[in-house]
Design goal:
Elements: H1 2-34, H2 40-72, H3 74-92, H4 98-101, H5 104-134, H6 140-144, H7 146-168, H8 171-176, H9 181-185, H10 187-197, H11 204-208, H12 216-255, H13 261-289, H14 291-315, H15 318-336, H16 339-346, H17 352-369, H18 371-379, H19 387-406
Helix pairs in contact: 1-2, 1-3, 1-5, 1-7, 1-10, 1-12, 2-3, 2-5, 2-17, 2-18, 3-5, 3-10, 5-17, 7-13, 12-13, 12-14, 12-15, 12-17, 12-18, 12-19, 13-14, 13-15, 14-15, 14-19, 16-17, 18-19
């Protein structure tokens, strides 16, 4: 289990590095480079629009790779999805800007972002299922949380590179070529990840399935459609909170509040470190008290914290921004720390790869794709405090609370100790 969990964590970290480095670039530099005819606000909206394309592609990737995972095994999904995401990320670093290629530049950007999302849509389901289906029931939540640690690791890697470049390059150098370096750097961990994953063994639960679903998506829609919609609605707030903190806040603080990008990135990264460390703790609590209670607590905490978060952000003070980000991410991970075990347990094994991944990634469309665009629009024209963003996130938290309330508990019942034998 440690070796398998490490391989899953490493793979998700690599793939989310690829995904997050684009989000940071979209917040900081892609607008002027690829949409120079737009105003600064419109350019940021357009860049976030290309960011959202990756989320739209993720459910399609979950259908494609979910079909492979349910028909042919979880292991092939891990290798293929990592190759696709890594190759498209490196290619983004080679795309010419609008000044060189004209309209073809943003078109290429959208195509490659779509391919990134397609690969990531398959990654999560394969990595989580392979780990969860190997894990002992009593500690399934803990072991399945290791792939969930991958996103914060990937975020820290992506933004660590961006932070270093921002510190050592001038704005002109960063805009000219520096932003490309993190995309090119994706080649090395992608190759290492493929090598690491090629030695993994197939899930024993998949090998036990007698009759595989002929068309998994059709079976999921017919038999588990309500479950997919509930999971998507439940998870939307988690995506929205995470990308508000890690993507939209970068653009808002640098452009609207005048805070340096190094300061904002430092505050976000510090909060993400704590969030990553707390992920296994939330998973252990899920193993002890159940998946659903943790999700309900996390949603309620999000609903209560969104207005304080935007107030703290609006101060522009580093410690206040860090406190706002940290509270939001701890509420987020209280939910998402147990999702690696919860979603697979909700679906039967023969369609688990498709069902869990589609529900997870549809939540990404609702919460991740729309949030940077909606938040940017809501924060324009108002006062210093973006109250509209707080209201939007609170509404999503209440939606998630209602959806989780309708989902069942799935934690395996603890095995009772045998009664002592008396003479």
């Amino acid at each position: 289990m440690p070796r398998l969990a490490a391989a899953s964590l490493a793979g998700t970290a690599i793939e989310f590095y690829d995904f997050f480095v684009y989000g940071t670039a979209a917040a900081l530099v892609l607008g002027p480079l690829f949409f120079p005819a737009f105003s600064p606000v419109a350019g940021t909206l357009a860049a976030f629009g290309t960011f959202g394309v990756g989320f739209v592609a993720r459910p399609l990737g979950s259908v494609l790779f979910g079909h492979i995972g349910d028909r042919h095994g979880r292991r092939p999904v891990l290798v293929a999805s990592l190759l696709l995401t890594g190759a498209s990320t490196v290619a983004v670093g080679c795309v010419p800007t609008y000044g060189t290629a004209g309209v073809a530049a943003p078109v290429l950007l959208v195509v490659l972002r779509f391919l990134q999302g397609l690969g990531l849509g398959g990654e999560w389901g394969g990595a989580v299922l392979l780990t969860a289906e190997h894990a002992p029931p009593a500690r399934r939540g803990l072991w399945a949380s290791f792939p969930q640690v991958g996103p914060p690791v990937g975020f820290l890697l992506a933004n660590g590179v961006m932070l270093a470049l921002s510190a050592f390059l001038t704005d002109a150098q960063f805009a000219q070529w520096g932003w490309r370096v993190p995309f090119w750097a994706a080649a090395v961990p992608a190759v290492a990840g493929v090598w690491l994953r090629s030695s993994l063994v197939e899930s024993p639960r998949f090998l036990e399935i007698g009759a595989h679903a002929r068309v998994p998506l059709v079976e999921v829609v017919r038999r588990h459609g309500r479950l997919v919609l509930l999971t998507a609605g439940a998870l939307a707030v988690g995506y929205a909170v995470f990308y508000t903190v890690t993507t939209w806040s970068l653009a808002y603080a640098t452009r609207r509040l005048g805070v340096s990008r190094t300061t904002v990135l430092g505050c976000v990264m510090a909060a993400v470190v704590v969030k990553g460390a707390f992920t296994p703790v939330a998973a252990l609590l899920g193993d002890r008290y159940g998946r659903r209670p943790l999700c309900l607590v996390g949603c309620a905490a999000c609903a209560l914290w969104m207005f304080p978060m935007v107030m703290l952000l609006a101060t522009g003070a580093p410690l206040a921004m860090f406190a706002g980000f940290l509270g939001a991410l701890l509420a987020f991970v209280t939910m998402f720390g147990v999702i690696g075990a919860y979603l697979p347990e909700l679906f039967e094994p023969r369609v688990r790869c498709t069902g869990a991944a589609v529900g997870y990634n549809l939540g990404g469309v609702l919460g991740g794709a729309l949030t940077p665009v909606v938040a940017t629009a809501l924060s324009e024209g108002g006062g210093r405090v973006p109250w509209g963003v707080g209201a939007y996130l609170t509404a999503l938290a209440l939606l998630g609370l209602a959806c989780f309330a309708l989902l069942p508990e799935t934690r395996p019942a603890p095995v009772a100790a045998p009664e002592p034998v008396t003479g």
